[in-house]
Write a structure and sequence with these properties.
Radius of gyration: 20 Å
Helix content: 25-40%
CATH architecture of the largest domain: 3-Layer(aba) Sandwich
CATH superfamily of the largest domain: Alpha/Beta hydrolase fold, catalytic domain
CATH class of the largest domain: Alpha Beta
Number of helices: 5
Length: about 180
């Protein structure tokens, strides 16, 4: 049975992140190195300082929890047992809305779809509306990690189909990037 979900990162995890950011050391940089040699050192230092001193995780966590309808959907995958799949489930007021499974890219997360939710669920007489399901793939985000080797495309498909049927959708559209799982 599906259950509501709220993001709640532990204070210990946030403290550990801040300790790591505070103790970060940086290598020397090559002369005239820009993006052609990877992330420039100045940019890495700027990002590290922002994550350490400027980013407010608790505020972002609250925004996501207030804005997103999040659930855990337990599914069974043949040979891999039970997995808890985190997903967003936003339904349209339109009774003719089309169920749409929106699969994030790799690497990526459910956050890729958050700006699209109001656009896809609203619709009007000129555009279709969708009942949008945005899962975190197994091993990503707040979904279960697979503990057994061999979980591939067929198992990802089985897990996502199980999410959709558990939510009551037996026919649905799907959106995904060309390659949405890590390569074995």
């Amino acid at each position: 049975m599906t259950r509501p979900f709220q993001i709640a990162v532990s204070e210990a995890d946030l403290q550990r992140l801040h300790q790591k950011l505070e103790s970060a050391t940086f290598p020397d940089e090559l002369d005239d190195a820009e993006w052609d040699m990877g992330v420039p050192l100045s940019e890495m230092k700027r990002l590290t300082a922002y994550w350490h001193n400027g980013f407010n995780w608790r505020q972002k966590e609250q925004e996501l929890n207030e804005k997103l309808f999040q659930f855990i959907v337990p599914v069974s995958v043949d040979g891999f047992g039970e997995l808890d799949i985190h997903c967003l489930h936003h339904t349209s007021a339109n009774p003719n809305a089309i169920p749409l499974l929106f699969i994030h890219g790799w690497p990526g997360s459910f956050l890729e779809a958050t700006k699209l939710i109001p656009l896809l669920t609203s619709g009007d007489e000129n555009y279709p509306a969708f009942n949008l399901v945005v899962p975190s793939l197994p091993n990503f985000g707040f979904s279960s990690a697979v503990k057994t080797k061999g979980f591939g495309l067929a198992q990802y498909a089985e897990a996502m189909h199980a999410v959709m049927t558990t939510l009551g959708y037996h026919e649905y559209g799907r959106h995904s990037s060309p390659s949405y799982t890590p390569q074995d």
